[in-house]
Amino acid sequence: MTDYRDLNQLNWLYKKLALHEVQRDEIINDMNQSNISFEDTMKSVSYDKPIVQTSGVCGLEKIIDFEYEKLQKELDSINKKIADTKTDIRLLEEKTAKLSHFIKLLSEEAQMFLELYYHKKKKSYVAIGLELNVSHSTVGRLKKEILQQVELFLSYS
User: Fold this and answer.
1) CATH of the domain spanning 106-157
2) How distant, in Å, are the alpha carbons of 105, 146, 157 from that of 111?
3) What does the pLDDT look like over 40-94, one tens digit per residue?
4) Residue 121, H or E segment
């Protein structure tokens, strides 16, 4: 049994990673296109007039350099987000694997409780108590014991 919240978060992180990769590809494409347009622009400028030779070309170069730097910073930011998201995914996968291993080590009663309590159709303590043939206060105590064991397990692993 796996914690559905962790799986939902993991799926969300995978979607976030895919979005960042698409954004990165778009920025790289924009950068490649800006290089081509820069060369075309420079070829089309007439250097016959003195004003074009000084301020016009320098202005174009500054604008293009500024836009290129802006795209480069945005690309670096997206790459950092991708790396962070991959790290989050890896850590969440490790946590999920540890919890899955821990759940296998629990008693059958504890596993049944977790299945009933954390299932998509979450049941109340009373309903769980009826299925496990224990009182609802025993179910609450069982939950507290399991959570303490999980914290202990995660702190040592």
Assistant:
1) 1.10.10
2) 9, 10, 20
3) 655 655 555 554 455 555 666 777 778 788 888 888 888 898 989 999 999 988 8
4) none
